[in-house]
Amino acid sequence: MERLPRAAIFIIIGVVLFIIVLIKSAVVIDAGQAGVLFKLSDGVELENTYGEGFQIIAPWNDMIIFPVRQLSISDRMNVLSVNGLEVSVDATVWYQPEYDKLPYLYKEKGRDYVNEILSPAISAAARSVVGRYTPEQLYSSKRDVIQAEILDEVRKELESQYVQVNRVLVKDVTLPEKIKEAIERKLRQEQESLEYEFRLTKATKEAERQKIDAEGKAVANQILSASLTDKILTEKGIEATLKLAESPNAKVVVVGSGDSGLPIILGNQ
Fold this sequence. Notes:
It holds the Pfam family Band_7. The chain is an alpha+beta fold and 269 residues long.
């Protein structure tokens, strides 16, 4: 087998080295990600955040890639209410690193910034907010208020920390079983009391309505009685007698008059 020319050997070595350098230099950043360049000469490049796509770097440098789309973290925390009772809060937080400040985040907080700063901030905010309320308030009508206040507290904790918190969702607040049962009994009693007051109010209004209706009828009867004289009654009786006499189904027999002076009508078919 003939030996390869020395020039060919150098060419092969050069091609291999070129491929190695190309592999080390080519970086692909996927959608929803961004890169921070670490230079061997002077450390993190703070001026630039590298966006998604194909990037070429020096082979002795390193590209650290972070997800920059919205992410979420869920945690279940045991905190104390305003009266010292332990409450379990199950919360989810949506967050994302600040794109333009990504190099600073990496330089000051490192890759594991979620455990370094985000989780402690969430726990501190939950303790601060839940500690303002009683178990009854936590269990009933304060859920939306608590979410908003935890969000404000987390944002304060992470101010100038290069992490943006978008939303907080409190999925569940778990109280000690005895406290929960006592609160449910109290809520049932309050509901029953409200229902009883409603029925009582309804009955009172109905009684007032009937009283007003009866008083109105009494006044109307008094007015009617005062206006009915004997002459008017006689005239009305004559009118009624004439209408009855005009009926085709009636046979009229007049035999004098009654006590009131009106004719007496007998017989019909």
